[in-house]
Amino acid sequence: MGGEHNQFEPGWEVPNDGVYREIGEHPDSEGILHARELHLHKGDRFPRTTNGNRKWTRVKNGDVKHRN
User: Mean pLDDT throughout 46-61?
Assistant: First the structure.
């Protein structure tokens, strides 16, 4: 099979453990205010997004937003 996905639809199976963040439907719309971040485990299902046009992407270790 082909390359690895970097955007995931709600309901798809999570490919790897990690932190995933909501992103917009356009590649240049990553700066969503208050985007959800979730730690998911391989085999989980991606939950619904807060907006039907959004998707999930895996966050690289240095990109995780720390909340106070």
Answer: 90
> C-alpha distances in angstroms, 2 versus 5, 39, 48, 60?
9, 26, 26, 22
pTM over 0.90: no
> What single DSSP character describes residue 47?
P
Report the candidate in 38, 35, 28 with the shortest Cα–Cα distance to residue 58: 38
**Which residues partner with 23 through β-bridges?**
55
End-to-end Cα, the chain, rounded Å: 41
Half-sphere exposure of 13 (CA within 13 A, CB side): 3
Quick one: which of 53, 48, 56, 68 has its CA closest to 18?
56
